[in-house]
Specification:
Structural class: alpha+beta
Strand order of the largest sheet: 2-1-5-4-3
Mean pLDDT: 79
Helix content: 40-55%
Radius of gyration: 50 Å
Shape: elongated
Number of strands: 12
Strand content: 15-25%
Number of helices: 12
Order of helices and strands: HHHEEHEHEEHHHEHHEEHEEHEE
Distance between the termini: 69 Å
């Protein structure tokens, strides 16, 4: 930052030195000559044959004051141009004017003849020192630029002579150089001070954010990024604070998942170990009932592991759908048959409401998995009446026929702030009414990923104390 400001200050000083000293004479000469040409053009263009001397005097006075140019006009008394008449106009801005102090008619005749030969216009430079017999190379002497125009005036020909005095700028350049030395020191000092102030102001929040990021990297999520008053660093700090919050939330969810999975794994493993040891050590314990318990617990372990693998596959986008046309209503009936034992044993009421068979084009196995996970979730969280309703309805929206599947439970419901989180892969509703005999806690995350692959609309409607309704839509096939 300091180097950048120093380079900027040096660049500014170089430009000042270039324009204020090296090029000052050239710029001054160019501007003065341009003013002379513009003044001559303005006066000449305003003169025509009907113009009188009074009008010419007024026009010349205004132009001389406007451009700082000396103007003279001479009448032509000889048709061959060898003899000049009297001066009919004298407008001299400077105390010393080259054309004002011309002696004799030789120079006027020369200017007139040169103007005639060049189509009525002539321009020439004269050194001031030549008037006094000095060396023309003297740097302290100036220069005069003469511009001549032949114009008609009151049926006569008049020679307009315009003079711009170009004074030497040696003393002026010396003064400016002395000033630039002082200005250079001031600018460099200011540049260094500003560089230090800005570098501290910009680097302080970056340095502090870097320290907080180091804490975040080692797993300390209780950090606060402050970007200061700079817009860019403020936006960066807001993004990092959001990232820290999301990482802390993800860390909590991962810890909850590990705790839940550990608990779910421990229960069937403990039962399998207990029953197999009993069947090994105690005579008569190797009964079909005990073997069935071992088989059921093994199935629970398999289901848990499969669900975790499913979540990993969807997260890595490695799943590919196998689209076929199938009877969705029939798949729904097949799914409900799996719960016949649960209905007989525990008294659940799983009601299916479908008024017609509907065909869809989708991955049949994945849609079956969606239905199974949604029903499992409803069974786990339904109320004391143990009622779950699966409702199928067909509707037409914007010329498109769709089937809506709703899975409704009568449980405690989900609070509004928790609704967006129920689909997260590490999220579980902490509800002491949840039944622990079914499900792994990963089902809704699997449902979400399958429906996203199908580009299907889905969601959940819930209100605390009034149960929940999970739903999704599919396009009806012809």
């Amino acid at each position: 930052m300091i180097l950048s400001f120093a380079m900027f200050g040096i660049a500014v000083l170089l430009i000042l030195w270039l324009f204020q000293t090296v090029l000052l004479d050239d710029i001054y000469m160019h501007l003065k000559q341009r003013s002379l040409t513009k003044c001559a053009r303005e006066v000449t263009e305003s003169v025509d044959g009907s113009l009188n001397r009074v009008q010419l005097d007024q026009i010349s006075s205004e132009a001389a004051k406007k451009y700082g140019i000396c103007i003279s006009a001479y009448s032509i008394t000889s048709s061959n141009g060898r003899k000049m008449g009297e001066a009919i106009l004298d407008k001299h801005i400077n105390s010393f004017c080259f054309i004002h102090n011309m002696k004799g008619e030789s120079l006027l005749n020369k200017l007139y003849l040169a103007a005639v030969q060049n189509g009525g216009t002539y321009k020439e430079s004269f050194s001031i020192s030549s008037l006094f017999g000095k060396n023309q190379g003297d740097s302290n002497t100036g220069e005069n630029v003469i511009y001549c125009n032949l114009v008609p005036l009151e049926d006569k020909e008049v020679l307009l002579v315009f003079n711009a005095e170009l004074m030497p700028l040696t003393s002026t350049v010396d003064t400016i150089r002395a000033q630039l030395v002082i200005i250079s020191v001031i600018i460099l000092a200011v540049a260094v001070v500003m560089a230090i102030i800005f570098s501290v102001r910009i680097s302080r929040p970056i340095r502090e954010m870097s320290e907080e990021a180091t804490k975040l990297a080692v797993g300390n999520y209780n950090v606060n990024f402050d970007g200061g008053n700079c817009k860019e660093t403020a936006n960066l700090s807001a993004t990092l604070n959001r990232a820290a919050y999301e990482l802390s939330k993800l860390d909590r969810m991962q810890k909850d998942l590990i705790a839940n999975v550990s608990h779910d794994l421990r229960t069937p493993l403990t039962m399998i170990a207990g029953y197999t040891e009993a069947m090994r050590d105690l005579p008569g314990e190797a009964t079909p009932e005990n073997m069935q318990i071992v088989i059921d617990e093994t199935a629970r372990l398999t289901s848990l592991v499969n669900d975790m693998l499913e979540v990993s596959k969807y997260q890595n986008t490695s799943q590919v759908l196998k689209i076929t046309k199938f009877n969705l209503t029939e798949v729904l009936r097949t799914t409900l048959e799996r719960y016949s034992k649960l209905k007989e044993r525990d008294g659940y009421k799983i009601i299916c409401e479908a008024d017609c068979d509907v065909y869809v084009e989708a991955d049949e196995n994945r849609i079956l998995q969606v239905l199974y996970n949604l029903i499992n979730n409803a069974v786990n969280y339904t109320g004391e009446d143990k009622t779950v309703i699966i409702r199928q309805t067909v509707s037409v929206s914007e010329g498109k026929k769709q089937v809506l599947i709703e899975v409704i439970d009568s449980g405690r419901g989900i609070s509004e702030d928790e609704l967006p989180l129920v689909w997260e892969r590490y999220y579980k509703v902490h509800d002491f009414h949840k039944r622990a005999d079914m499900g792994t806690g990963l089902g809704l995350s699997i449902v979400k990923n399958i429906l996203l692959l199908h580009r299907s609309e889905f969601g959940v409607n819930s209100k605390v104390g009034h149960g929940s309704c999970f739903w999704f839509k599919l396009d009806v096939a012809e």
